[in-house]
Amino acid sequence: MARNSKRGVGPDKLNQLRHVRFLQNAGGLRKHMEKHRALLVPKFTAVQDGLSRRLTGTGAATWSAPQGGYFINVETLPGTARRAVGLADEAGVMLTVAGSTWPYGRDPQDSNIRIAPSFASLGDVRLAAEVIALSILLAAAEKCQGGASIAVQTAPIGRPETNIPIR
Q1: For labelling alongside 94, which of 12, 37, 51, 117 has CA 20 to 30 A away?
Q2: DSSP classification of residue 9
Q3: Rounded to two decimals, what is the model's pTM?
Q4: Domains delineated in the chain
């Protein structure tokens, strides 16, 4: 406790030293970031594939294809993002709160979902992408019951590695 009371307002010099020793130089930093890329690219690709397979051509959503960063931004039909996130949650997929990219989390169109696939395993990300896409599709279908229509594409769903159907 006494040690913490002497902490200054500047950066943590010991932590900086650890980073310098670990990374060594700009080349070491680049090499380390390539390792990050090797872990993240397959996960982002899995989300893109899942969204594309279920949502392309439906009009239910559009999404970003980031070339860096840690998030995929999804724009759903207005008024459906919270419902889609809720459906995904009911299916066991936890997402950030719908509209979290807006100030105070208040998305005036209720259309924004931010996906962060970096933490989960690749297999879980693949399955979650399917659940997210189907949740978006169902939320859009519910919204459109009153007149508008969306195009629905069918494809089998299951765990990609084992082809076990989801129950």
Answers
A1: 37
A2: S
A3: 0.77
A4: 42-144 (3.90.1150.10)
